[in-house]
Amino acid sequence: xxxxxxxIAIIEKSFPFGSFLLFIILFAGLVRNPKVPYFVRxxxxxxxxxxxxxxxxxxxxxxxxxxxxxxxxxxxxxxxxIYCISQCMYGVEPEIPYFSKxxxxxx
Length: 107
Hints:
Layout: H1 2-14, H2 18-31, H3 38-63, H4 67-89, H5 99-106
């Protein structure tokens, strides 16, 4: 598993805007590609939208450094991750308020 993610880590760390480049590659390569199955595109789009939300929240936490809020956001993010994994294992689209609707609009 580690060998699969190693090229992604190299892209992200070696270029100045590596995370942005990775975002563009995932969006163009997965979300907008009709040859990729719908379930994969939907989950990739939701993951990208959640990533954008977490980036915005991390910038807000730099302005207002509240330690307890960071812990709450971590627990909330972990619970979303576990929920999405369990729903995907059953073959059901995970319904996350606001994110699921936005993901469907992008596909």
